[in-house]
Amino acid sequence: MTRKKAARKTRQAAGHNGGPRGRKEIIDAILQATEKLLPKHNPTDISLRQIADAANINYSLIHRYFGTKESVIMAAHERILSKAGEQFSTIDRIDGNIGVLFKMSGKNVSRRALLARAMLDGADPHLIRHHFPIMHQLIELLRKKKTRTKNPSEYDAETLAAFFTGAALGWYFFEPFLLASTELDKKDKDKVHHQIAEMLEKTADLLC
Fold it and tell me: In the chain, what are the domains?
C-alpha cells in the first residue's frame, strides 16, 4: 500500500464527524480517552470499543496503532507518569522540596486513581512502568542530603524515598476519612495541606 493510500484509509477510518485526523492526533485522542476511562473502571472491564467511542475514532485505528488493549493501557500509564516526572525533574535538592512532592501528589488526581486501581487489581508495577524516574530522582536527592549531613541516620535513601512517597500518596488516598475522623474537615484545607507539607519537611531533616 502506498503512503497516499494509507493516509487516505486513516482519514476514512477517522470518519467525517470532527474526529482527530493524522497519526499524532489519533494516538493522542486514544490515550486521552483511556486516561479518562481508567480512573472510573477496572481495566479488565474497559473495551476497545469504549475507548474508540470516547476518542471519537473508528475502532480499527486502535488495533492499527496499539494492537491490544493492554498496550493502550500501558501507554496511558506511561504518559501520565512521564508528565509527573517532568514536573519533578527540575528539582536539584531535597531541602525544602519534600513539600513539593506532597503537593504534586495532590494535583495528579488521574495518576493517583490509576495507580490505586492498578494496585487494587493486583497489577505488577513493573508491567505498568518499566522505570520510575520520580522515585529514582528522589533517591538521588536523599543520598545527596545524607552525604551533606554531619551525622546521617541509619536509614538508606531507598527506604526514605519509599516512606515519603507513601506518606504523600497515602494522605491523598485517604484524605476524606482523615479529615472527617479528626474533624480537620472543619478547618481550611489549604492550611492543613501546608502543615502536612511542613511536617514532612521536618521529618526529612530528622531522618536524613
Answer: 1-67 (1.10.10.60), 74-208 (1.10.357)
Q: Which three cell numbers mark 40?
A: 472510573
Check the CA dihedral 43-47-53-55 and report its sign: positive
pLDDT tens digits, one per residue of 147-159: 888 888 999 999 9
What is the per-residue DSSP string for the chain? --HHHHHHHHHHHH-SSS---SHHHHHHHHHHHHHHHTTTS-GGG--HHHHHHHHTS-THHHHHHTSSHHHHHHHHHHHHHHHHHHHHTT---STTTHHHHHHHHHH-HHHHHHHHHHHHTT--HHHH-S--HHHHHHHHHHHHHHHH-SS--S--HHHHHHHHHHHHHHHHHSHHHHHHHHTGGGS-HHHHHHHHHHHHHHHHHHH-
For residue 186, give every residue at least 6 positions away whose Cβ sits within 8 Å of its Cβ, in sequence order, or none: none
pTM here? Answer: 0.65
